[in-house]
Specification:
2 copies of one chain form a homodimer. By secondary structure, chain A is α/β, with parallel strands linked by helices. The first copy, chain A, is built from 8 helices and 12 strands.
């Protein structure tokens, strides 16, 4: 083989910036979506040490054929400072996971973690409207999910986090977004709940725990877990055994990827949530 | 298609830095060579404006999963200043077209343009030893070719460039490398010449000219043209019609690519010229 077909001098570059970087799935998944839409483009992993973040990303932002950046752990909050313009979700969440250079040469940042979750539900023809939501975890992913769900007119959002302060902060943020929502802090409950969302790391990788104590979930509760590894967490196993509908972290990722590529294609234009 | 197979979080990154960048062939060719040798690696094009060169490349050099850089027009000389360690060819030529991070974390720079030419001849079982060489063009590529050829114990090297100063400078450099070589400056001749090398841009792209005035070349002269577009230049056409052996720019590129990937694999270790 003298030449590969998937990269050339005309290829447009996108990069995911994180540390570590080996575990990310955006390179193969976002590249596939870009190629599927007919672009000569590739998303490459870039492993940047926290002490190099500002300098290296400033350099990447000057590369003329680099059209977009994705940020992952631990840079989503730091990336906020690099964007010249912040989208609606980024402003509300205070973090950025995607940046695109717009036609004026400015960098627009926004966050799609929560939108991906809403999109995963929509793809299953499920809505948050008028639903009672229990959210476990108020870290980066939890914040983004809470903000995106709050924009979907749910009836109630109850939030639990082992760090009570960040859970109550998030409750306040939801009240700001839509005061009609019954937002509260409290332990994970399964009564009077229509949708159970896990955005905590409990159950990730080799952690066998579920983020709830119950061994049984009412069968009309829809259960979502943001964790992507393993795909079938202990929480989702309990949910399936209880006869609940389950939505996987991978579905959130897929929903987010389409939205991020929309964002890249529109050069930082608003992601369509409608 | 949900995922592409050629890039993942574990992919090692290489980049070619130039301006403009669309015309480069290293991404498809060097990536192919890396993949052929079993590496999960990709070489991506990066278009960097001259005013951003220092800052952006300094940032790229800090990316932890980026193992090597290629430099093309107009950065080969500027790149010299960025390498912590210069290889033999780079020291002699005063330019760098490849850099690799060695095991100590230092960046080693070297230039392979001339080595690629020598390698192209070797792949055709042709040697420069004891041969009389006529070189047209003493710019970047010409300098690198002259230096590499001078290390192959030719009997004579005559150099022509429309800029007489840079041709005579290069003649002096050759005398430094090996005083036994009969090095001189002068108009392109076809008598008492065994090998004719064109490293000038005359004949490139839509330029229909040949860098020599003659319409006929003695059939025992080997004729090489460093130009890659078009593949068959006017010079090579004349050579073929004269019954000469011809060596194409693409062969130089192929020879160079293997050497550059050797250099990347050895993390900046010496390229094997023996």
């Amino acid at each position: 083989m003298d030449e590969v077909k998937y990269v050339s001098g005309e290829t447009r570059i996108f990069a995911i910036v994180g540390h570590p970087i080996e575990q990310v799935r955006s390179p193969e998944m976002i590249t596939a979506e870009l190629v599927r839409r007919g672009h000569n483009a590739i998303l490459v992993p870039t492993d940047v040490l926290p002490e190099d973040f500002e300098r290296t990303v400033a350099g990447l932002m000057r590369v003329q054929n680099l059209d977009g950046l994705i940020f992952t752990i631990p840079f989503k909050q730091a990336a906020c400072a690099l964007a010249g313009i912040l989208g609606d979700q980024a402003l509300k969440v205070g973090a950025v996971n995607a940046m695109a250079r717009n036609r004026d040469g400015d960098w627009v940042g926004d966050i799609f973690d929560g939108i991906g979750c809403v999109e995963a539900f929509r793809n299953r023809s499920l809505t948050f409207e008028d639903r009672r939501v229990m959210l476990i975890g108020a870290g980066g992913a939890g914040r983004a999910i809470a903000v995106a769900v709050a924009q979907q007119r749910p009836r109630a959002i109850k939030i639990f986090d082992i760090d009570a302060k960040r859970a109550t902060d998030l409750v306040e943020k939801i009240a700001d977004i839509d005061p009609r929502i019954d937002a509260s802090f409290g332990k994970p409950i399964l009564e009077n709940v229509d949708i159970l969302l896990n955005a905590s790391p409990v159950g990730m990788l080799s952690d066998p725990r579920a983020p709830i104590e119950a061994q049984q979930i009412p069968s009309d509760v829809v259960v979502f877990d943001a964790i992507v590894k393993p795909e079938l967490t202990t929480l989702l196993t309990i949910a399936q055994q209880s006869g609940c509908r389950t939505i996987f972290g991978r579905e959130m990722m897929r929903g987010q990827i389409k939205k991020i590529v929309d964002f890249f294609e529109s050069r930082g234009g608003k992601a369509d949530l409608a």
